[in-house]
Amino acid sequence: MPGLVFTGSAQADLLEAWLYIAEDSLAAADRVLEAIERDAGVLLDQPLTGRARPELGQQVRSWPTSTPYILYYVSDESDIAVLRVLHHARDVRLAAF
């Protein structure tokens, strides 16, 4: 069974999201991150369930969470690597992958 790994960029995205939301509510910030991590777990059972995003890189896929954030990831036989966690309103073409 593959493992789930958040890259340094994805971890930085999560921290940025948490800090932004925490300006209004620490509890809400915690809930959003918990939901993102829970939703990412779906990929462990179905790693190819996300939409293919060849315009962002070879084998990059996206998976919407129950929050306003989208996971961008790649999957192979051993791991699922979450590359970025970006707000749905962000122009992803400007993000580095």
Q: How is this structure best described in words?
A:
The mean pLDDT is 94. The protein has 3 helices and 5 strands; from the N terminus they run βαααββββ. The protein is globular and about 40 Å long. The chain has 97 residues and is of the alpha+beta class. A hairpin with a 3-residue loop joins strand 4 and strand 5. It has a 5-stranded mixed β-sheet with strand order 1-5-4-3-2. The protein has one domain: YaeB-like fold (2-Layer Sandwich), CATH 3.30.2310.20.
Short account of what is shown:
The chain has 97 residues and is of the alpha+beta class. 35% of the residues lie in helices and 27% in strands.
Any idea how many domains?
1
**Please, what is the average pLDDT?**
94
Q: Characterize the largest beta sheet: strand count, sense, and whether it forms a barrel.
A: 5 strands, mixed
Look at the helices and sheets and give the structural class.
alpha+beta
Query: Can you tell me the CATH class?
Result: Alpha Beta
Number of helices: 3
> In angstroms, what separates the terminal alpha carbons?
25 Å
Sequence stretches where pLDDT stays below 50 over 5 or more residues:
none
What's the gyration radius in Å? Answer: 13 Å
The portion of residues assigned to helices is 25-40%
Assembly context of the chains: single chain
